[in-house]
Amino acid sequence: MGRRNDGQVTEVLRYTAFTTTPSGGNPAGVVLDAQGLSDAEMLAIAAELGYSESAFLFPTGERQYRVRYFSPLAEVAFCGHATIATSVALGERIGQGTVHLATQAGPVPVEIVPGPAGDITAVLTSPPASTRPATEEEIRRTLAGLRWSADDLDPAYPAHVANAGNDHLVLAAATRDRLADLDYDYDALAKIMAELGWTTVHLFWAESPAVFHARNPFPPGGVVEDPATGAAAAAFTGYLRTLGHLQDGSSITIHQGVDMGRPSLLTCTAIPGDTRVKVSGTAVPIP
């Protein structure tokens, strides 16, 4: 529960997304009715929870909501895992069907459907995805912050800045061991990301053309690492499609959070004839 300045109590739900167990996935705070909350109050709730993001909903019509996302440090335009968590929480209360979310990054429809084990799966359609090559200076500074060298990168996947609601630097690790051994300079990377407006750095290793392992440093949110990042996954899927590594209508799976002890599974599909991406996942309440 969170207490507002007017003394009223706001119900704050806790869900973890992209997992079927409370010990996995990425936790998010969810406020299904945030009417009357100020920006400072929403930020305070997010900071008290300490999760990478929390979602605050403002009902605007039948199955329609305006949503705002806050990390412990600042507001974020779009957050995939908090959207999945919120949609599952909604589905448990209003049933299956489509909900329409208005985010600062644009409209995000979410399909709430039955999951394979009788649970609920949420399938969000991301904001439009785009990507551009990273500059040599961006790569050099980021590698220094990560304490990586150019030899640690996989040349089959060039470094890009990808977007599907937020900017993410995409870097491919040459080996799974390189990805697993993540010990970066938090302050240095935080400075670079703040200057360039990046939300996370999406580090990944390609197990196969359709299966990837990822880690996402998230200093701008006050978090060392994100265990599941739906917005970065959508941006990454758009990146793969632009580079010709993924065909329209094809799907990939992303394993994230494994090295943190919070395994997460994200499924992403490139929508035919559209720059947007579908991101699917489950979520469960945190006791």
UniProtKB/TrEMBL annotation:
<feature type="active site">
    <location>
        <position position="53"/>
    </location>
</feature>
<comment type="similarity">
    <text>Belongs to the PhzF family.</text>
</comment>
<keyword id="KW-0413">Isomerase</keyword>
<dbReference type="InterPro" id="IPR003719">
    <property type="entry name" value="Phenazine_PhzF-like"/>
</dbReference>
<dbReference type="Pfam" id="PF02567">
    <property type="entry name" value="PhzC-PhzF"/>
</dbReference>
<dbReference type="GO" id="GO:0005737">
    <property type="term" value="C:cytoplasm"/>
</dbReference>
<dbReference type="GO" id="GO:0016853">
    <property type="term" value="F:isomerase activity"/>
</dbReference>
<protein>
    <submittedName>
        <fullName>PhzF family phenazine biosynthesis protein</fullName>
    </submittedName>
</protein>
